[in-house]
Amino acid sequence: MGDGILVPRINSVSLWLVDDHVWKPIDATKININGVENIFFTSVAINTHRGWVYLDLEPSKEFYKLLARGFKPTSHAKIKLDRKNKRVLFHLSLEKEVEIYKPGKAVKPVDVNENSVATLYGAFAVILETDLAKTTLGYSYRKKSIQKRNGSSSRETRKAMKKLKEGKKKRDYGWKTANMIVRDALRTRGVIVIERISGEDIRVMIARYKNKQLRHKIYQSALKGELNAIINKAREYGVPILMVDPRNTSKICPIHNAPIEYGEDRIGICSKGDERWHREVVALINIYFKALEALYEGSAQKGFGVPSIDGSPMPLGSTATHEPIEIPRSLWGRWKSLDATGLKTLWIKKQNNPKQININDNQ
């Protein structure tokens, strides 16, 4: 170094183990997960110039998830020396035989709003209350309180902000709703249909929030974040996504093609047939019909079972679904998938309690 000679510095060391002659699993056990045989092991042996070196592994949670989904270990692996933490990282390649996703006749419309995500589950219109806009508003008030108490850039303020974990919680809610919707579409071999919402459309939806910074946060997390979560989760499972025009999906009656007049709540009345419509139900049915037109070029009857909708004034003897099942976040947050039995139970409870608008987990 003193004579001007640069000494090379090795920052990372990685070794590729390309076949099973260089490494092998120790005490490999055959297991059966969901009817698929797999191999599980927690230690490996690596062949070096000084003989076999044995390593005990601590598999991550993601490794067990992939095994449960049918992925199997291959002979390709890589080890990397982590000098900072004084450990060896073992990267294992996994593979899985998959079949090409062939969508059936089912269409699953999804309507995303700043505080809820609505979808159809069979004959039920379901609203999953995400409350992302309300959560963003609550965190905004808490942050203002912390800054007012400790200052805007103090050490105590930074520590308190980190403990809030706002982004992590909102992402968790978004991924849970996307996972339930996509898995239900995968179960029915359906096509997920969402609205092709532009940035200007979203700004109109959240225009009632006066604070510019708050509007931007709701724009990013509650609407764009939820739509992107559904799209990315659908790509992960190979479920096709169809985007339709969002124009007038919640303003036009799907029966009479007439405007719906809304009051202060989300229940409107058709200006021609006097049917009572819930705003999310109208949006789901119109999105459904637009998907049929897009898939079959206006021939909605070609291979599809068109929903049975009559024009009698609701709720007196109508077969159309005009009141959805509203499920709070405290309830669906513990679910792993939409369940027909659970939804039927909630629907019966709602019919027995007509004055109760929302169904909560305390009933």
Describe the protein.
By secondary structure, the chain is of the alpha+beta class. The chain folds into two domains: 83 residues, no CATH class; 246 residues, no CATH class. Strands 13-12-9-10-11-17 form a six-stranded mixed β-sheet, with helices on both faces. Strands 1-7-8 form a three-stranded antiparallel β-sheet, with no helix packed on it. A three-stranded antiparallel β-sheet has the order 2-5-6, with no helix packed on it. The longest helix has 26 residues. It is globular, with a radius of gyration of 27 Å.
Helix-strand pattern, N to C?
EEEEEEHEEEEEHHHEHHEEEEHEHH
Whole-angstrom Rg: 27 Å
Level of helix content? 25-40%
Mean pLDDT comes to: 77
The fraction of residues assigned to DSSP E strands is: 25-35%
Shape: globular
Summed up, the domain count is 2
Count of helix runs: 9
Q: What structural class should be given to the helix and strand makeup?
A: alpha+beta
Give the oligomeric state of the chains in this entry, treating copies of one chain as homo and distinct chains as hetero.
Answer: single chain
Q: Could you give the count of β-strands?
A: 17
- Unreliable stretches (pLDDT < 50, length at least 5) are 298-321, 354-363
Give the termini distance in whole angstroms: 76 Å
Strand order of the largest sheet: 13-12-9-10-11-17
What summary fits the major beta sheet? Answer: 6 strands, mixed
